[in-house]
Each structure stands twice: as structure tokens, then as C-alpha cells.
């Protein structure tokens, strides 16, 4: 699922249609969402988190998620992911055909109560039921099930979140039957040293194959630095949002998703293969800009590609030897 696919070194997982859209007040039309997802897939993006199965009254922006999942499933080669808060959400996601479902569990219990309105034990019970639901399906239609460790690097309510607590929750999620855990810097508190320490601690507890990806925010400007720290260790999946949609990094309390275009440029210029065509990706912004009035960000889109830049080469300004290391 998250192994290197088709000669791809790094899997860039686009979360804009979910994390981006749920964080803005505008509601994007279903047709515009479909056009966005299709254009990103055509640009070579292999995995897109297309929505969340939450009650429409809570998030009207994502009310059409079942239809969007169903549509995205028709795009060849695209891994379709969805967020689910509970068993009911998982049933909806599986019914619509999602390849991958993720349940977010805030390591900070105060945040869990605010976000999912559930204690840890209540979330564990939901996970137990979702695992049973998945095991009851024929093997070839079972979705990949990830437990996301939200607020892993700190919480806006509780402040410090101890690393050992994150590790304990990761162990519990794997013991309950999640296929893997994801690390999420929900609040934009993480720093590169903390990322390395946390990943190593979780690997030591549950195994390297149970944590392959990270979801970082750029709230304090450390998004790509944190990606690089995780990349140095060997993580291969990174979440990002087109145009950083879903939070301006300069606004108080904003989520500040990292920008897909900047992430892809960094990886490609380092000589790593993402399978994504940068010029095509940059053009996808026009679809999103035309559909929602909210601001989009990104240094690469603003500055353009460097003069003479050749995508997919051995790297930009690095020798073949360095790029191969």
C-alpha cells in the first residue's frame, strides 16, 4: 500500500480535497472537486484523500464525499483515501469504495473530546468495531486501515504531549488491528529533532513497516524541514495540500498545510522520483482558484521553476552520486 510504487521513491498524498476544504468556509461544487481530483491524478498524483465521512451538518463542505469517492474510484491507478471518525463513517467509506480509510485519534484526550467528542477508550471501541467490519469483508475488497496519531507533537489545549504517550497509543492501535499508524502534527508544533525522535520511538515499538508516513503543517514555517527530517530517516509517504489550502501559515490558529507544489519541487530537485509532473501540477491551481475564493499559497507557484530546470533528472544542482545516496 505504502511501499515504493512503480519506480516511485516517494508517495505524495494529496489531502486538499479533505483537509483543505474542511478548513475553509466556502463550499466547493461537486463538479469542481471532480475536476480537481482528475487533474491531479492526470499530473501523476497517486493518492488523494478525497473527503471525510462526517455528518453533513457538521461539515457541509464534505457532504458529497460518497459521490466523490465513487467518482475517484473510476480514475485508473489512483489510490482513493477517506477520513472516518467512527464505525458509521467507515461503513460509508467502504460502501463508496475507498481503498484506504483513516481514523484520527488525538493523543491529547482533551483534543479528542473536542474533535471527535470521544474519550480514548471510546475511540478504541470504534476501531475494534471497524477492524471487525473489515475482517468480515472478502480479502480483495478490504480497505487499508490507518490509525492517525493526531496532536502527536503538541496540543493547543494541553500543550506538551509526552512522546511515551504517543508510543503507547501507537502500540494500542496496532494491537487493535490497524494496518499502520500515521503521525500528524495537527497543531504545527513539531520540529525536525522531535520528528526524528518520535519516528524512531514508534518504529522501536511497533516496527518500521507500521509507520511509513507523516502529515505535517507549516504553521510555524517548519513544514518542509520536518519533511526532510522524516525523509532522512526513511519515511516514504508525505501528506500535503495543493496551494496549502486549509490554512494560511500566518493566521493565528490556522492549520497551515504544507504546499503540494513546494513539496514536489523539493523532492524532485533532490533527485527523488514522485511520478508527478510539476508543470501539470501547477496548472491544477487554476481549477481550484476558479472554484473557491480562498487564498492559495506556495513559493514554487509564485516564483516559477528555475531557469533551465529539467524535471525528473538526477537532481537540481546535486551530483548523480549525491542524488543516488
Describe this structure in words.
- The protein is an alpha/beta fold.
- It has a single domain, classed as Alpha-Beta Barrel (TIM Barrel), CATH 3.20.20.
- It contains 13 helices and eight strands.
- Strands 1-2-3-4-5-6-7-8 form an eight-stranded parallel barrel, surrounded by seven helices.
- β6, α8 and β7 form a beta-alpha-beta unit.
- α2 runs parallel beside α3.
- The longest helix is centred in the middle third of the chain and has 16 residues.
- It is globular and about 55 Å long.
SSE topology:
Layout: E1 11-14, H1 16-22, H2 30-42, E2 47-52, H3 65-72, E3 79-83, H4 87-96, E4 100-106, H5 109-115, H6 120-135, E5 144-150, H7 163-176, E6 180-184, H8 192-206, E7 213-215, H9 223-233, E8 237-240, H10 260-269, H11 278-291, H12 299-303, H13 320-324
Parallel strand pairs: 1-2, 1-8, 2-3, 3-4, 4-5, 5-6, 6-7, 7-8
Helix pairs in contact: 2-3, 2-11, 3-4, 7-8, 8-9
Tell me the helix content: 40-55%
Largest beta sheet: strand ordering? 1-2-3-4-5-6-7-8
- Report the major sheet: 8 strands, parallel, barrel
* Percentage of β-strand residues: 5-15%
How far do the termini sit from each other?
A: 24 Å
**CATH class bucket:** Alpha Beta
- Compute the number of structural domains: 1
Total strand segments? 8
Unreliable runs: 320-325
Q: Based on helices, strands and strand pairing, what is the structural class?
A: alpha/beta
Average pLDDT, to the nearest integer? 92
Order of helices and strands: EHHEHEHEHHEHEHEHEHHHH
Q: How big is the Rg?
A: 18 Å
What is CATH's topology name?
A: TIM Barrel
The CATH architecture: Alpha-Beta Barrel
Shape: globular
Please, what is the CATH homologous superfamily?
A: Aldolase class I
Amino acid at each position: 500500500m505504502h511501499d515504493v510504487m512503480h519506480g516511485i521513491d516517494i508517495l505524495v498524498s494529496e489531502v486538499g480535497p479533505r483537509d483543505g476544504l474542511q478548513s475553509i468556509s466556502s463550499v466547493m461544487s461537486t463538479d469542481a472537486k471532480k475536476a480537481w481530483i482528475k487533474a491531479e491524478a492526470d499530473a501523476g498524483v497517486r493518492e488523494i484523500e478525497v473527503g471525510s465521512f462526517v455528518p453533513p451538518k457538521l461539515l457541509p463542505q464534505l457532504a458529497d464525499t460518497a459521490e466523490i469517492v465513487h467518482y475517484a474510484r473510476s480514475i485508473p491507478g489512483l489510490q482513493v483515501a477517506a477520513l472516518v471518525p467512527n464505525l458509521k463513517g467507515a461503513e460509508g467509506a467502504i460502501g463508496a469504495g475507498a481503498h484506504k480509510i483513516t481514523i484520527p485519534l488525538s493523543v491529547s484526550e482533551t483534543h479528542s473530546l473536542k474533535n471527535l467528542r470521544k474519550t480514548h477508550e471510546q475511540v478504541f471501541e470504534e476501531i475494534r468495531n471497524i477492524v471487525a467490519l473489515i475482517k468480515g469483508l472478502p480479502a480483495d475488497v478490504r480497505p487499508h486501515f490507518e490509525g492517525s496519531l493526531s496532536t502527536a507533537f503538541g496540543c493547543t489545549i494541553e500543550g506538551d504531549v509526552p512522546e511515551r504517550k504517543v508510543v503507547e497509543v501507537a502500540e494500542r492501535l496496532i494491537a487493535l488491528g490497524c494496518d499502520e499508524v500515521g503521525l500528524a502534527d495537527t497543531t504545527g508544533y513539531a520540529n525536525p529533532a522531535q520528528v526524528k525522535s518520535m519516528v524512531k520511538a514508534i518504529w522501536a515499538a511497533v516496527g518500521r513497516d507500521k509507520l511509513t508516513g507523516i502529515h505535517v503543517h507549516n504553521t510555524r514555517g517548519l513544514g518542509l524541514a520536518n519533511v526532510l527530517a522524516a525523509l532522512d530517516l526513511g519515511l516514504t509517504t508525505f501528506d500535503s495540500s495543493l496551494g496549502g489550502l486549509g490554512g494560511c501559515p500566518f493566521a493565528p490558529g490556522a492549520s497551515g498545510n504544507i504546499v503540494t507544489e513546494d513539496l514536489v519541487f523539493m523532492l524532485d530537485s533532490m533527485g527523488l522520483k514522485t511520478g508527478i509532473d510539476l508543470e501539470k501540477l501547477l496548472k491544477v491551481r487554476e481549477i481550484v482558484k476558479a472554484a473557491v475564493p480562498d487564498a492559495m499559497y506556495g513559493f514554487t507557484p509564485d516564483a516559477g521553476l528555475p531557469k533551465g530546470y529539467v524535471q525528473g533528472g538526477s537532481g537540481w544542482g546535486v551530483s548523480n552520486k549525491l542524488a543516488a545516496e
